[in-house]
Amino acid sequence: MFTNPVINSVLKNEGGYVDHPNDTGGPTHWGITEKTARSYGYTGKMVDFTKEDAYLILEKNYWYQPGFDKVYAIAPVLALELCDTGTNMGPVVGIKWLQRWLNVFNHEEAHYADITVDGKIGPGTLKALTQFLEKRGTEGAGVLVISLNCSQGQRYLELAEGRTANESFVYGWMKGRINL
């Protein structure tokens, strides 16, 4: 069942049960909030929520639905970053960052055309990513991951500055999520 290496990595990073008083998401297990678990019909206590249940939700909502499986076929390291970011912040957030970075890395459209920043992995995003990697190679994939981490780190800073209770989490977010 646990055949997707990216989802397995996310599960490992998320860890087990957490119910921190400063977390607005409430009880969370394997990265799945109680609200999300309930939307899938789970009625038990979150402390008892299984890794198998989490895997199925993560694979559906944070892998296939946003199209990270398509990114994986082009750049596995980038798919891992996007899936992990998506689990933490929602898939649309990471996809928009990817689209924005692809647009500014296209050398004023000399390498490929700008794409719409819509938070969806569609043909335009996949084409731009492919063209970017054709130009920049493996190094380019690494630079994209670093770029996404920069955006994610900035977001964590804003979250902590905007709500002091988030200071409880910001060190762990940076340690566990930036530079996977």
From TrEMBL:
Pfam families: Glyco_hydro_108 (PF05838), PG_binding_3 (PF09374). It comes from the Bacteria. InterPro entries: Lysozyme-like_dom_sf (IPR023346), Peptidoglycan-bd_3 (IPR018537), TtsA-like_GH18_dom (IPR008565). Residues 94-176 form the Peptidoglycan binding domain. Gene3D superfamilies: Chitosanase, subunit A, domain 1. Residues 8-90 form the TtsA-like Glycoside hydrolase family domain. This is Peptidoglycan binding protein.
